[in-house]
Amino acid sequence: MAITKKQELRALTESERELVALSGVRAARSMTDSELNRLVKRMRTRRDRARTVADRQRREMRGKARPRGATPPKADEGSMVKLEVLSAALARLETETTRRGEIKAKAALVESAKKALALKQKAKTAKPQAKAKGPAKVVRGKARVAVENHVPGSVRGSVRKQGARAQAKRDAR
Questions:
Q1: Is the pTM of this model over 0.85?
Q2: Rounded to the nearest 10 degrees, how much is the dihedral formed by the CA atoms of 77, 79, 83, 84?
């Protein structure tokens, strides 16, 4: 359900209204990183406090906890509206923080790629050493030893097929 401005004004204190106003997209984008981080921290503490109050009021209404005020709460609608407004404002601020982080990561990636390209181009311009004239020496392992095959060619296929049938019989069990 959408929250009207009237409900928002009724639920928030003056300082909370200022924080919510600062959490708008344009206002958040005009802030420096340190200002944004401070605002996120303040908004989180306000949101956590609103959540605690809303939870406590809900418990008191259900009879699970003793009332803390002079009269027990009859409804927790105002505290729930406050919680929703502050949560939405915090979500906007965190979205902006994430966006800035992605921009920084992309810039770092581009910078790293440019640095790697420069190193690669520098390595290509270095002249390779001239090769020595003459035949190349090839290092090889031991010579292959020819092994006499004891199974004649006419029998090889049938032996292989016999092994396949035996394996299929074992697999079918």
A1: no
A2: 20
Euclidean distance between CA atoms 99 and 101, whole angstroms: 5
The rounded distance, in Å, linking the Cα atoms of 55 and 171 is: 61
Q: Tokens standing for 154?
A: 């006419």
Query: In whole angstroms, what is the distance from residue 54 CA to residue 58 CA?
Result: 6
Task: Output the six-digit token pair for 144.
Answer: 């292959």
The b-or-e profile of 59-69 (16+ CB within 10 A means b, else e) is: ebeeeeeeeee
- 112-121 pLDDT per residue, tens: 999 999 998 8
Phi, psi of 30, rounded to the nearest 5 degrees: -85, -10
Instruction: Name the token pair of 124.
Output: 């290509």
Q: How far is it, in rounded angstroms, from Cα 119 to Cα 93? A: 39
DSSP states along 57-93: HHHHHHTSS---SSS--S--HHHHHHHHHHHHHHHHH
CB 11 within 8 A of CB 82: yes
